[in-house]
Amino acid sequence: NGVKKYFPIKGGILKRVQGNVKAVESVSLKLYKGESLGIVGESGCGKSTLGRTILGLEELTEGKIKFNEQEIQDLKRKEKKKFVKEMQMIFQDPYASLNPRQRIGNALDEVFRMHTKMPAQERKEAVLDLLKEVGLKEEHYDRYPHEFSGGQRQRIGIARAIALHPSFIICDEAVSALDVSVQAQVLKLLKTLQEKYHLSYLFISHDLGVVRYFCDRVLVMYLGHTVEMSDVTRIFNHPLHPYTRALLSAIPRPTMNVKRERIRLVGDMPNPSNPPSGCVFHTRCPMAQEICSVDKPAFIEHEKDHFAACHFAGESLSRVLG
Ligand code: SF4
Ligand code: MG
């Protein structure tokens, strides 16, 4: 609720704070049990920072984070521990977090060593079960990270994330580095695990095709702000925000034959330490009017469960431009 994450910019010999990179600006969202909420937007829009802040990997600047009705942002380290087991993250490159000299079995065993009191034999069995669960084999136990393919490594990343039976997993570009066919297999695995364990996913991705296939709802972010949120069907078939429309019209897919205007984005994303006045999207919005650079549009519900932050939400380009 109202989550903000600013990174101070320090400069000069005195290292005084000279401003802030406003990575996440007042984001409010709910994630329901067993659902997948996609977070989309161009790189640098704050998706990953939002995920890391929710998990407590970044200190919260402002706002509240509740997990199962318990506010967790102010918990002491010790109290936080039980939530650590409940919330996990899967990254784009699991290889980066694996020790190249450590056998995979041992790396997974470490999770149980650190967080449980299971005896060695029990841990070994748990690791073998885990390997099976993610589609790997017993003989993989003694192999090193470099002996695995990209898809297999991501399965190892998933194994590590589910080892302690979490209920909430953030997938940050989890399949973005994989070939399309491997992507499909890993996504299928994530879905199977979701059904089996009633997992909730926050699925961060710049790939709208993957989000459309995988997610129940979608949140669109631009420059640290939430600009649109709804269920996946409405976001893709009936987007209200010009930015969402621009993202969608950039997907080169003949199968997406929904009639819509082609919206091209001009220019780059503005600097998040000095965001534009009014609507943060006005410097690139093809529909922008005078009011847009002055008045910040609120993120409001335009139709049931369909939120957007735009003064002209749902209007057509030709109508607004006259
Ligand atoms: Fe574009 Fe104005 Fe809507 Fe912002 S408020 S998205 S600038 S039309
Ligand atoms: Mg990112």
Automatic annotation (TrEMBL):
The keyword Transport applies. It comes from the Bacteria. It holds the Pfam family ABC_tran. PROSITE patterns: ABC_TRANSPORTER_1 (PS00211), ABC_TRANSPORTER_2 (PS50893). Signal peptide: none annotated. Keywords: ATP-binding, Nucleotide-binding, Transport. Transmembrane segments: none annotated. Residues 1-248 form the ABC transporter domain. CDD domains: ABC_NikE_OppD_transporters (cd03257). GO terms for molecular function: ATP binding. InterPro entries: AAA+_ATPase, ABC_transp_ATP-bind, ABC_transporter-like_ATP-bd, ABC_transporter-like_CS, Oligopep_ABC_C, P-loop_NTPase. Belongs to the ABC transporter superfamily. PANTHER family: ABC TRANSPORTER, ATP-BINDING PROTEIN, TRANSPORT ATP-BINDING PROTEIN. NCBIfam families: oligo_HPY (TIGR01727), PRK11308.1 (NF008453). This is Dipeptide ABC transporter ATP-binding protein. It comes from Planococcus shenhongbingii.
